């Protein structure tokens, strides 16, 4: 058995500004698992530093090197690899562990799909619609009307001006989701931003206005503003889904597979959301192409709204790769 862990860094074609930071590049963690005739690779984008409860790159790498991969090797022994849909059950209740096992799940899913001669683990119920992300500052929707984009998720903050929002929207007439990334805007500001959008486009909601877990303020905003509130970073497991519904804190949630523990967990959260009447979409803005294929299948397999399933625009230069750790025959 051989396992290789590495990092890829890609530069974005143009920066994306959120309330937390300006993204110029994205680092992904790459995992390659080889066992007899089995070969699978997974790749997962991770924040540079811990943000809003999500782990940073170094935290996930430390989790993989010191805990998750040694545990995987012990699970395998000399018999066989575990099924991809089962590994989430051994994740610890911390963010870095969920992301680490989500990456292992991706590598196993890739390998099992190759062995089966194709990727067909979830039957499609729909052709999912496309969501794209822009910044209120410097963003543009000019090319998207002809690309099948259904919804725009616009990164805004308390410093975003009405003129910036109007400029970024351009002649966009479709759906818009205002994403505050927990920047805690005032009710008056959210109302002002919403009014600007509704002058020319279809406002479908306001995403993560407050800190993860602050369901009371989200419920209050939804009540007073009269629009849909969406929760992104505040959704990490099935209990969050139930509490959001119980507190009437949101009508829409973003289900991001690594944040909840992987594809199998994400699928179970979708079924729970369906049962509770909660709308959802699949998130993964910085995901590399292989992960987006899985996001597409996940969104297609359920009643997901417009999701992060189209390619991110990276520079055409080759990604910068760095090997981190290696287990197996070629270990130094």
Strands of the widest sheet, in order across it, are 4-5-6-7-8-9-10
Percent of residues in helices comes to 25-40%
Q: What is the global morphology?
A: globular
Termini separation (Å)? 15 Å
Instruction: Please count the helical segments.
Output: 9
Helix-strand sequence: EEEHHEEHEHEHEHEHHEHE
Give the number of DSSP strands. Answer: 11
Please name the CATH architecture of the largest domain.
Alpha-Beta Barrel
CATH superfamily of the largest domain: Enolase-like C-terminal domain
Radius of gyration: 20 Å
Please tell me the overall pLDDT. Answer: 89
Give the structural class.
alpha/beta
Could you characterize what this model shows?
The protein is globular and about 60 Å long. The protein folds into two domains: 2-117 and 317-327, 2-Layer Sandwich (Enolase-like, domain 1); 130-300, Enolase-like C-terminal domain (TIM Barrel), CATH 3.20.20. The protein has a seven-stranded parallel β-sheet with strand order 4-5-6-7-8-9-10. A four-stranded antiparallel β-sheet has the order 3-2-1-11. Helix 1 packs across helix 2 (95-115), helix 3 (162-169) runs parallel beside helix 4 (187-198) and helix 6 (238-246) packs parallel to helix 8 (263-276). The protein contains nine helices and eleven strands. The model has no long low-confidence stretch (mean pLDDT 89). It has helices at 57-76, 95-115, 162-169, 187-198, 215-225, 238-246, 257-260, 263-276, 289-300, and strands spanning 2-17, 22-35, 38-46, 130-135, 149-155, 175-179, 202-207, 229-231, 252-255, 279-282, 320-327. It is α/β, with parallel strands linked by helices and 332 residues long.
């Amino acid at each position: 058995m051989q396992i290789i862990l590495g990092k890829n860094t890609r530069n974005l074609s143009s920066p994306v500004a959120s309330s937390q930071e300006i993204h110029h590049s994205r680092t992904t963690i790459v995992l390659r698992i080889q066992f007899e005739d089995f070969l699978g690779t997974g790749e997962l984008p991770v924040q540079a530093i811990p943000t809003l409860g999500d782990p940073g790159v170094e935290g996930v790498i430390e989790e993989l090197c010191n805990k998750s991969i040694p545990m995987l090797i012990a699970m395998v022994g000399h018999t066989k690899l575990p099924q991809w849909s089962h590994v989430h059950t051994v994740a610890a209740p911390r963010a870095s562990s969920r992301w680490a096992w989500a990456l292992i799940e991706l590598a196993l899913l890739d390998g099992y799909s190759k062995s089966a001669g194709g990727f067909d683990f979830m039957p499609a119920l729909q052709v999912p619609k496309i969501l794209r992300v822009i910044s209120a500052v410097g963003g543009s929707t000019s090319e998207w009307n002809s690309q099948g984009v259904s919804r725009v998720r616009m990164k805004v903050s308390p410093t975003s001006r009405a003129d910036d929002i109007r400029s970024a929207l351009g002649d966009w007439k479709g759906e818009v989701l205002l994403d505050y990334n927990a920047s805690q805007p005032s009710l008056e500001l959210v109302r002002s931003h919403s009014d600007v959008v509704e002058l020319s486009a279809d406002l479908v909601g306001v995403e993560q206005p407050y800190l993860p877990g602050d369901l009371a303020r989200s419920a209050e905003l939804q009540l007073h503003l009269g629009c849909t509130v969406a929760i992104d970073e505040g959704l990490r497991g099935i209990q969050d889904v139930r509490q959001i519904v119980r507190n009437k804190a949101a009508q829409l949630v973003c289900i991001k597979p690594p944040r909840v523990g992987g594809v199998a967990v994400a699928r179970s959260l979708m079924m729970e959301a369906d049962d509770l009447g909660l709308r959802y979409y699949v998130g993964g803005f910085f995901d590399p192409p292989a992960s987006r294929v899985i996001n597409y299948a996940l969104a297609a397999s359920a009643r997901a709204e417009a999701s992060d399933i189209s390619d991110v625009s990276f520079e055409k230069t080759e990604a910068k790769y760095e090997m981190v750790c290696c287990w197996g025959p070629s270990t130094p």
